[in-house]
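Comment on this:
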Amino acid sequence: MIFPDSTLREMCQRLPATPKALLAVSGVGNVKLERYGERFLRVINDWVKEGSGT
């Protein structure tokens, strides 16, 4: 498990678009940001671009 459900729910609510915004999500620290941040931000950004985030 990379992130617990509570962190994933917060990501869905906040829809962070930058590393700084992702780091502000509870449960995301520097290590996880470094390891997984780019991938999570890409998925979130793609989801928003498809119109699912509105």
